[in-house]
Amino acid sequence: MTDITDDIAEEISFQGFDDYCKLLKNLLNEVLQREVGTEFVDKLERNLTLAQSACNLRFAGIEDTAELLEKQLASEISKMTLEEALTLARAFSHYLNLMGIAETHHRVRKTRNLAHLSKSCDEVFNQLLHSGKSGDELYESVCNQEVEIVLTAHPTQINRRTLQYKHVRIAHLLEYNDRPDLTQEDREILIEDLVREITSIWQTDELRRHKPTPVDEARAGKSIYLINLNSPLPYFLPCLHIVEQSLWKAVPHFLRRVSNALKKHTGKSLPLTCTPIKFGSWMGGDRDGNPNVTAKVTRDVSLLSRWMAIDLYIREVDSLRFELSMTRCSDKLSREAHDILEQETSPEDRHESWNQPMSGNQTRLHGQQAPPLPTQLPARADLPACTECGDDGGSHPKLELPGTGYMPLSCQDAQGSSNSESSFHESGHGSSKSIANGSFANSNSHQPAPSPRGSFTSSQLLAQRKLFAESKIGRSSFQKLLEPSPPERPGIAPYRIVLGHVKDKLMKARRRLELLLEDLPCEYESWDYYETTDQLLEPLLLCYESLQSCGAGVLADGWLVDLIRKVTTFGMVLMKLDLRQESGRHSEALDAITKYLDMGSYSEWDEEKKLEFLTRELKSKRPLVPPTIQVAPDVKEVLDTFRVAAELGSDSLGAYVISMASNASDVLAVELLQKDARLAVSGELGRPCPGGTLRVVPLFETVKDLRGAGSVIRKLLSIDWYSEHIVKNHNGHQEVMVGYSDSGKDAGRFTAAWELYKAQEDVAAACKDHKVKVTLFHGRGGSIGRGGGPTYLAIQSQPPGSVMGTLRSTEQGEMVQAKFGLPHSAVRQLEIYTTAVLLATLKPPELPREEKWRNLMDEISEISCQSYRSTVYENPEFLAYFHEATPQAELGFLNIGSRPTRRKSSTGIGHLRAIPWVFAWTQTRFVLPAWLGVGAGLKGVCEKGHTEDLKAMYKEWPFFQSTIDLIEMILGKADIPIAKHYDEVLVSDKNRRELGAELRRELLTTEKCVLVVSGHGKLSENNRSLRRLIESRLPYLNPMNLLQVEILKRLRSDEDNHKLRDALLITINGIAAGMRNTG
């Protein structure tokens, strides 16, 4: 159960869940009996029984006896050999992962069977109409809504992609098991398949042995198969990826659900080219503190994303061509089909290899040749090697070749190879005749003039012959088997002709991208391939309109509508890639430039002087950076990134996010560097850069920066150049990002939540004052400590006016798989995003009823922040305690992300990234970042007589209620006895152990205060399903923690023991599975 899944936790009944847990546990035991033997399984069951008994006693309030059983369990674990400990860790880890699969499956099963699903489009649309909203207002709001879910590469997904894939396979088998029509034999076969999957999981290494590259992370998020790229990308490597695995199927299903609900409640369907949700990505673009993300990586990932999109569309078009076999069509479509046939002159060219991707050997061979290749073969180069004699000699006949010639690495390689004509046209435009070998030769084709054989070196000639032979083997006859025989002209299938032409242009676009990714020359003309979404939509919409006009609407509303909606949602890039860099890197780049130009030191100027310089240069029409400038490698990388951004443009890229932004000059600095790069690239190309300029988005992260966010936006919008730029290039739209992770680490969760709320209010007000529309971009993590929590609750508790039909939000690490890993789960999450934003727009949450409430929040926040910082930043023992009591130092061995765990080399908490900070405390079940300081703040205000005020705030103010509920949720996951055990075994110093005891007392105080405010008798009383799910994991989770403590103890006295390290990492995996989140 992730922190997000209580979105639908109330919909769970537990009988089916228990049955699936029992089934998977028994099957794992069966596998273990075979793999490790009966004796070990008996020992494992004994440990499980001790853990279960201790949990039952704690639930009954018999603490002393429970503690005795836990000590006995810890004693038995301490006596285990290393091999036994490793096997036990693996077994419990797999138990917890299988339980997670059962949870997810049971939620999906229950929601599928519910007649009225809460937070659904149908329910929310009906609710809004009954609240007084008109049907037209509802319709316009849904059609104009813009929600973007941004998938990031934050390193919180702990499972290997291989294991994720196997877990999905098990989930699909459980879903298949729910079918009522299965015979007994079917169920027996299904059980055998489950046993095979679990056996495969057991025999698979759980650990990543190498860190992923940024491109690996992008592949995991987006791609299916990768072409042979000269980079760290393997050849045709199959990847588990969220797009093809789930979103590709979920998006059209989700949009049908939205459209049907709109039709029911307003009488109008969702327009075909309208989608309330799109997707973005940081994978391969987020370079903040990650030196592995370079300009080349960003370029390759962006091109790869395009390749992936086109590859998916080719498959879709193939399926659609098969379905749309009818001949009746509109006059407009008929004319289009005949125009396509008129343009195509070589029906046999469809059997050429050029409309297929080259093999890896072919591409590599091209890349190895230093001189440029000729555009045609020399005379007789098409003959077998044994026909080296002249024209009048040789004992072998000439080989008849299909097509008009072999033209390597030219855009001509795909001309005349249209699948539309090859499939459906035989006569009338360049007569064709069949020849003996079954291929076709065009009697009107013009053979290229022979070129002297001496124009080739012998090595080139051999290479060309080999290339040609490889390209032809089996392809002509095999291609003919795949496609239907060409009918006579009077019976042409116009939809197939048009869609064949679409496929042809898509294949050329895919081939072009392969050449670009190989850094090989490409001479395709722009009309040969699809570059924009509108270009691809045009023929698809033409087919749709034709079907509708001919009375075939039922066909039009099938696969064709789904494909149109996929194109509208995913475009030509699947997900536009955001770029992110820290503000200081831009200042360093400008400092190097100004020094090189003898203009002074940019970094030493005050804010006003910076703004004056930046504004002046932005108004200038000349480039600032000389092409011959010599700068340090770090600065060059920044400039190279802007150059790549200029080359790709806004058609491929989304926003440029500035982390650690604090001044207006941080934004203008990026605008200037972007403008300069676009001028340079445009000059080299001799034409404007593709697409428009990227949106520049300041990210306010620390408490100090959040407090100044509104002032920065006001300053920016008061600058004439910037306000005109926003209106002209971004349609009067300003985007601002707020960061939850660093603000929480900086001041504690409660203070961060309040400062984020006020910052959003201030930014929204600043934009409203300047008549600019604002989109707030929420950088939320998966855990409560990093701003995570139920999506619906989070959006519904935003300040009024901050969600005006637009929202961007990150989804990170394990949350991506948890929310979008299965199509049904993905549909549910997309619907929750849509309805939550719609409600927040049309029925915004209430403001604080009294000004007194805001004053109380300020007071709680101040006390909370002071308590948090006095412990984390001011207590001299805390840093050492943190390192001893948690596995923080060992987390780096997990290899779960490409970026370092620290922004800088400092060992303090300040430069530690928020993910390992939260991750480490989650492992020990102390979850300190989510609650530290909260108890002190609430207690301080209650002691001043404001308890009843807090209770009223909880009942009537959505923001305050959601803040308390999230803290209560995470307190339900905390475990004081387990955290105490870490301290007793691992913390060496008496003063540090006392610090741990003091923090545990603070945790108890926080629990009491939260329960007083919420009015609940015990934690998670308002979410019994969540509490029940947490309790069901404890018999497996508690032994994992005890085992981790024992392994940490041994490893810290034997640091080079790799088996101990492996055992520790497996316990980390298992505990993350049990807690259902990492950082």
UniProtKB/TrEMBL annotation:
Species annotation: Salix brachista
GO molecular function, one term: phosphoenolpyruvate carboxylase activity
Active-site residue list: 154, 745
UniProt feature, compositional bias: Polar residues: 354-366, 435-456
Subunit structure: Homotetramer.
HAMAP family linked: PEPcase_type1
Reactions catalysed: oxaloacetate + phosphate = phosphoenolpyruvate + hydrogencarbonate
Family of this protein: Belongs to the PEPCase type 1 family.
InterPro entries, alphabetized: PEP_COase, PEP_COase_bac/pln-type, PEP_COase_Lys_AS, PEPCASE_His_AS, Pyrv/PenolPyrv_kinase-like_dom
Organism placement in taxonomy: Eukaryota, Viridiplantae, Streptophyta, Embryophyta, Tracheophyta
Amino acid composition bias (Basic and acidic residues), ranges on this chain: 342-353
Protein's name according to its UniProt entry: phosphoenolpyruvate carboxylase
Keywords, sorted A to Z: Carbon dioxide fixation, Lyase, Magnesium
Keyword Disulfide bond: no
GO cellular component, one term: cytosol
